[in-house]
Amino acid sequence: MNRIVVYCGSSAGHDPVYMEQATRLGAALAQRNLTLVYGGAKVGLMGAVADGALNAGGKAIGVLPHFLQQKELAHTGLTELILVDTMHERKTKMNELCDGVIALPGGFGTMEELFEMLTWGQLGLHKKPVGLLNVNGFYDALIALSKTMSEKGFLTAENRDMLLCSNDISDLLLQMERYQPPARSKWISPAQS
Predict the structure, then answer these.
(1) Average pLDDT of 104-122?
(2) Directed axis angle between helix 16-31 and helix 44-55, to 10°?
(3) Overall pTM > 0.85
(4) N or C: which end of the chain has fewer CB within 10 A?
């Protein structure tokens, strides 16, 4: 892995631990010589993860739609800022640039980006590791939901296990380095359910 995309909130959240962990994640990527790829904004967890990487001597590439730049949300200190026309182009470009994915806490946008990358991996469109940094139990309900999806026959255990989870940055990065993509197809036959 050379570049990690981080999906996260443009808000800070109510608990300071979210900003602290975002900053630490950015610094950890820099210390491992991994380039951060993210949404390009200077606000919330997005700004914190970028600042964490840059302040630790790392590289941060932002991908931002023009309409968000016009709202003065663009981080001006990035290694590179790539401007695109649409949200779809943004996600495509971020996927092209990365070798792995980490989701920090966030809202609907973070979930949408995370689930698209999981779906693409499930369909074999990429073989990149996808991880949750489960800060302060933020993703506990999502982890439980993925188990329910599997138990109810909507998700194979192998595809469920594509989603790597940890509340520890070093552990999550180690899981990502060791990741092996599923060998089986996404499609669930009656015999597999």
Answers:
(1) 95
(2) 40
(3) yes
(4) C
C-alpha to C-alpha distance for 152 and 171, rounded to whole angstroms: 29
Measured CA to CA, the distance from residue 34 to residue 178 in angstroms comes to 16
70-109 per-residue burial string, b: 16 or more CB within 10 A, e: under 16: eeebbbeebeebbbbeeeeebbebbbebbbbbbbbbbeee
pLDDT in tens, 50-85: 999 999 999 999 999 998 887 768 999 999 999 999
How high is the pLDDT of residue 193? 42
Q: How many CB atoms lie within 10 A of CB 33?
A: 10
Q: How far is the C-alpha of 135 from the C-alpha of 49, rounded, in Å?
A: 14
Structure tokens at 43: 């606000």
